[in-house]
Amino acid sequence: MALSKNPKFDLKLKYKRIFEISLIISLAFLIVAFKFFPKFQKSEAKLVAPQELVNVEDIVHTKQESAPPPPPKPPIPIEAPSDDVLEDIEIGTTELDVNQQVAAPPPPPKEEKTEEEPVFFVAVEELPEPIGGIEAIQQRIIYPEIAKRAGVQGRVFVKAFVDENGNVVKAEVVKGIGAGCDEAAVDAVMKTKFKPGKQRGKAVKVQVSIPIVFKLQ
Fold it and tell me: What CATH class is the domain 129-214?
């Protein structure tokens, strides 16, 4: 015998109607709410937090100190002389004889007088001139072989110290080119006779600069 469900208690048959009634009630509730409460005002929430104070402290930079020096080495012990050794030492008298004659100290040694170096003028009314001109000095030049092979050319400036008699007492290179040319220029100047320089009509010692040219043929 099959059992059948009573349609009176079957909820599935009334589901559509219950849904429609619930939808109508919801719409009516929304219409009433918008009619009586049309605007909603929002309030801003303010959060007040306590302000914290931060203390900034200066940090002192630490300095790295150097290590202390090592302690000094202990002194080496020295054996003191015994009493027997001290007995053998004779101590002289320290009494001062007032009547004793004391010889006077020797006089200081006399300083030897050195010859003063002669003073050579730099600028005078008439400068010294080589007899025969610069060509006479150039003719005395012996071109060094090493300078010829190396192709060294140029100009050597020699400072000549000419006395009141026109003789060159000293010569030195002011600016040279090397390769033996400087020595050759000094030798040629030393062998040259000069017409002495004059100051107020009197012959004086003068230093003069002379250019010597080295040029390969």
Answer: alpha beta
